[in-house]
Amino acid sequence: MRIFIAVRARFAEDALAAAVERGVRQVVVLGAGLDTYAYRTTLRDRLRIFEVDHPTTQAWKRQRLEDAAIPIPNSLTFAPFDFEHQTLAEGLGAAGFDSLQQTFFTWLGVVPYLTEETVWSTLGFIASLPNGAHVAFDYSDPPASFSAEARIHHESRAKRVAELGEAWLNYFEADELRAKLMALGFSEVEDLGPPQIAARYFPNRVTNLPDKGGHILRATTI
Ligand SMILES: C[S@@+](CC[C@H](N)C(=O)[O-])C[C@H]1O[C@@H](n2cnc3c(N)ncnc32)[C@H](O)[C@@H]1O
């Protein structure tokens, strides 16, 4: 899990840096949590960044930032928002998002907590932006495809997060997900599952590799 969390941030931020090189100037961190990208990126002077998060989580983060004396960069705008009760168009519109600017969305560690309907309406909004958009998000293979041992671990983690009030609500089958993204208007999809993640980021770690589990994906409409 720790490796996966590090990899998903590396993958998304590398894709974002490449998009900035190609001219992207607007970034949306969806479900930001304690994400620190806006506070540490050296690309900050070239970007307008929105942190979108549940109002309660965002208020807690802002207090933590204040307690830690971490300044809020001028490039950052906070957009309090609940995916399940508002549309992303409304939440971002209220924060001054420019829907005509090509935009990169990072959406890390959030998709599994949302209803499938909300996941698709969010991706539909991203795909509909008139001047193009990019998104990076993570998701999990269906547990039925895991090995028996991995399924037992998964079930115990799923039970723990559900007890904390943050249940995992969805899983995707990779080929179906890719086909639906293309049908929505994404023209390029790069999806790394556990074997591809291991080969790219940990080529020397050859033992105990699952072939099913967490995926990190980027897609673009350009
Ligand atoms: C596991 S954290 C991930 C945080 C961060 N993106 C990261 O990669 O570490 C899940 C985030 O999703 C947000 N989230 C979950 N459900 C949400 C909802 N319905 N509306 C807005 N944000 C939501 C939570 O507030 C939290 O910040």
Overview of this protein structure:
42% of the residues lie in helices and 18% in strands. Strands 3-2-1-4-5-7-6 form a 7-stranded mixed sheet, with helices on both faces. It contains 8 helices and 7 strands, in the order αβαβαβαβαβααβαβ. The protein is of the alpha/beta class and 222 residues long. The mean pLDDT is 96. The radius of gyration is 17 Å and the shape is globular. Helix 5 links the parallel strand 4 and strand 5. The site of S-adenosylmethionine has 15 residues, from loops.
Describe the secondary structure blueprint for this structure:
Elements: H1 2-21, E1 26-30, H2 37-40, E2 48-53, H3 55-67, E3 76-80, H4 88-95, E4 103-107, H5 116-128, E5 133-140, H6 148-163, H7 174-184, E6 188-192, H8 194-201, E7 214-220
Parallel strand pairs: 1-2, 1-4, 2-3, 4-5
Antiparallel strand pairs: 5-7, 6-7
